[in-house]
Amino acid sequence: MTDSAFLTALELVIGLDADLLDIVGLSLKISLTAVAIAALLAFPLGAALALFRFPGRAPLIVTLNALMGLPPVVAGLAVYLLLSRAGPLGSLGLLFTPTAMVVAQVILVLPILAALTRQKVEELHGEYAEQLASIGVSRRRRIPTLLWDARLSLITVVLAGFGRASAEVGAVMIVGGNIDGVTRVMTTAIVLETSKGNLPLALGLGIVLLTLVGVINALAHLLGEATRRQLG
Amino acid sequence: MTHLTLSVPATTPRLNFDRVSYASRGQTLLGPLSLNLEGHRRTLIMGPNGAGKSLLMRLAHGLLQPTSGRLVWEGAAPRQAMVFQRPVLLRRSALANLEYALAVQRVPRRQRRERAREALARFGLEALARRPARVLSGGEQQRLALARAWLLSPEVLFLDEPTSALDPAAIRAVEAAIGDFHRQGVRIVMTSHDLHQARRLADEVILLHHGRLVEQSPAATFFDAPVTAEGHAFVHGELLD
Amino acid sequence: MTRYQASTPASALLSGALLVAGLAVCATSAQAEDEPPFITLASTTSTQNSGLFDAIIPSFTEDSGIDVRVVAVGTGQAFEIARRGDADSLLVHDTAGEEAFVADGYATERADVMYNDFVLIGPAEDPAGIRDADSAAEALNLIADNASPFASRGDDSGTNRAELRLWESAGVEPGGDWYRELGSGMGATLNTAAGMGAYVMSDRATWVAFDNRQDLELLFEGDEVLFNQYGSLKLSPERHPELKHDLADQWHDWLLSEAGQQAIGDFEVKGQQLFFPNADGE
Question: What CATH superfamily is the domain C118-226?
């Protein structure tokens, strides 16, 4: 069966199956959008957590770390209840749309990005703190400075977030509904094919997904290495 | 004040240490000590490893707060800059590192490029403007750190073992730069464990041992006729215990 | 931050990612503007997994210009989605539940659309010997007496509800090691049953379309208590005025129309008809 799964995956890719392309495109669109939005929020948040001491900071960090393990299905359920017609944001009519899936993934990815950003920025600040204090850089001014100088590590952080977003199924299944051609992504398609007992196709889709994530990681790695060599 | 040359201030700033001590985790690492840093001099802080040289400097520069005692600048606190043993440069080009320091001082954007280039030229780095600061050699990095300090227009420049990791040519360049600062009216406070360097640069020497002030003397006195027994031993290259 | 620093590959990557994301958002919203009208239909995994919707929705869309977006879940969850106003239309198979849904005021009308039947599946060697049973009740009693593993959906779906009613009428209270509630959809339950050599009750459509049978075989069928009726419901405009009732009514009416019934009857998997239209109450 594994053989036929690989063959199926190969056929899917070589044949450039139109449905597959739609599904892959939607998966990428949703996960990249979610990661981009989460990064815009998480970078400053993580950096602020690294730089400022305030009451409630420690509980906040512990909470963020704990939320890194938030089960996707719980995030999905929360977004479902929020966006459902009977819920507080029901009038927006967003349930069972790609937007709802982006919202759910932002919730999943944000704690990871924020917690890891805090860690990376704190490490870098350990190195920079005296110099920045000597030049007279305010805490607030240090946020963009450190984020920019930590950009190499932040690529890894973003990839971790992208990995979580593109691999999860629990949340997008609930809030997207796995509607053919509208909200069907790689992972929900895999669940569907599995439940049809079409295991080679399911595994084939899995191989395609894995390859895709692998290619994105490899590209990021190469770019990161090139930059590292250049920046020393 | 112009940004090209630094005017000699009418009165040189004076920093008074009044029974200052610094402790960490219940252990006193420095002091209590009382001394004055005054005059338009080049002061070398000397002593064996662990004597508290770097601590004294960080307290003076305001990076650390004393556990007890008081540090007081007479008059307004002067503009200061500090050059560290291992320069901390941002992960950007040499030019961008300098422009950053100017931006922090709220220098208008259109002036930054020109002033940064002038500083690079002054320290012989103009050819390296676009190079990432982190791939420069140790000596180049330290000169860039000096160029950055220059752009802060300091009245007092602190240097913590600025040449300890450098080869002779680079040491010469850094010492020349320090002389340049001094001629432009900048008060120099510097740590070193190198007696030869101290002989070349010092107007005044402060000798620390086990966190205590042993001796503060004019350089000529210190090297020719130290007041204390420890000073005598140190100048003659003996180990202090 | 100054401009020329953005020349490093890392920053190019970061800005590239942001750009792609931005374009993606734009593309998504642009798409939303010229979208054809659509309704959201909450339905069951059995109809979805068999491929019925893929076969019949295109002809409805061609006739009406309305797209139907299917959210396929267990019947229990489908009711819940409709109750919360998250679907425009409902097609499920739990007649008693559907009538209660109308009685509670969530739907104004229910109609028979089609039926198929449940079948009992099990390992080919049939340790409980249900192959020769005279009735579904006898078959279930044999499984219980033999304590042969039985995989139950356990997910409050229409199939699960039908299964529990069958145990009740057979006079057996299922429980113990041999009775395994999986809390999964039909396909997942079949996968699990195949893995552990368990008996399982499935709707015929999912079974026929199911590809991972391994050692499983159809062992018992034909008792009229295994009849599986599907109904379509018109949801209440009073409860949820914001739903697309006009469009949903067109779908409901089409299912019951000659064209809709014909499309359902024409749907075959592996040469076998899976759903039998009965809107006229035959």
Answer: Periplasmic binding protein-like II (3.40.190.10)
Mean pLDDT of all residues belonging to chain C: 87
Interface of A with C in 1-60 (CB under 8 A): 28-30, 32-33, 35-37
Is the Cβ of A177 closer than 8 Å to some Cβ of chain C? yes
ipTM over the 0.85 cut-off: yes
Neighbours of chain B (3+ CB pairs under 8 A): A, C
Distance of alpha carbon C164 from alpha carbon C170, whole angstroms: 10
* A164-220 confidence digits (pLDDT tens): 999 999 999 999 999 988 999 999 999 988 888 888 888 888 888 888 889 988 988
Q: What's the first-to-final CA gap in chain A, in angstroms?
A: 48
Amino acid at B34: S
| Sequence-ordered list of residues with C-beta below 8 angstroms from that of C185, at least 6 positions apart, any chain | A195, C45, C49, C74, C153, C155, C157
Q: Who's near B82: CB < 8 A, 6+ residues apart?
A: A134, B57, B61, B63, B149, B157, B158, B159, B160
Q: What one-letter code names the amino acid at C61?
A: T
* Residue B96 touches partner C, C-beta closer than 8 Å: yes
- φ/ψ of C207, rounded to 5, equals -60, -45
Q: How many CB atoms lie within 10 A of CB C161?
A: 20
What residue ranges do the domains of chain C occupy?
Answer: 38-116+227-277, 118-226
Using one digit for the tens of pLDDT, what is the confidence trace for B147-165?
999 999 999 999 999 998 8
**How many residues in chain A?**
232
Rounded to the nearest angstrom, the minimum Cα separation between A199 and chain C is: 7
Spatial separation of the C-alpha atoms in residues C153 and A106, rounded to whole Å:
32
User: Best of C5, C29, C40 to disrupt the A interface by mutation (most A CBs within 10 Å)?
Assistant: C40
**Under 8 Å between Cβ of B208 and B191:** no
Q: Return the axis-axis angle of helices A18-51 and A199-231, rounded to nearest 10°.
A: 40
Q: Hey, are the CB atoms on B99 and C5 less than 8 Å from each other?
A: no
State the nearest Cα–Cα gap between C12 and chain B, in angstroms: 15
User: Bridge-partner residues for B217, per DSSP?
Assistant: B205
Compute the nearest-CA separation of C64 from chain A (Å): 19
pTM of structure = 0.84
Q: Write down the pLDDT at residue B11.
A: 64
C38-116+227-277: CATH superfamily = Periplasmic binding protein-like II (3.40.190.10)
